[in-house]
Design goal:
mainly alpha
């Protein structure tokens, strides 16, 4: 797991199972955001999934308000999931700060992304030749 790999450089002490468990518990608020999504889908039907210019133009104000409140709840759940994930990872890695756990995740993401960026760069340079 890349988080364990980058965490090793940062003096992290967690094993793969502990990291998976911390990520799973940290993302529980994200699963709670499914409840507001259910409210949005129940009130708008398929209009939210269409590609019309303005699918909510003819909707009553109550549906628009409930959709806006659901959107706020979804954003809040995702922010809380980010917060709890960083703190759970910091706890299992033995870090004193959640910022260090965030750096751990960012470094792992950059290592994951690097081959794709290099491949894209090679393709871009090959097209110019």
């Amino acid at each position: 797991m890349l988080i364990q790999f980058t965490g090793g450089f940062m003096k992290g002490i967690a094993r793969t199972q502990e990291i998976r468990l911390a990520l799973a518990w940290g993302l529980i608020p994200r699963t709670a955001s499914l409840i507001p999504w259910a409210v949005v889908i129940a009130t708008t039907g398929s209009a939210i999934f269409t590609s019309a210019d303005d699918p909510f133009d003819d909707e009553p104000i109550g549906i628009l308000i409930s959709g806006f409140l659901a959107l706020i709840a979804i954003i809040a759940c995702n922010i809380w999931a980010f917060f709890t994930t960083c703190h759970a990872l910091a706890e299992v890695q033995g870090y004193r700060s959640a910022w260090k756990a965030l750096l751990n995740v960012v470094l792992a993401f950059l290592i994951f992304l690097a081959p794709f960026l290099l491949l894209g760069l090679v393709i871009l340079l090959a097209r110019k030749l």
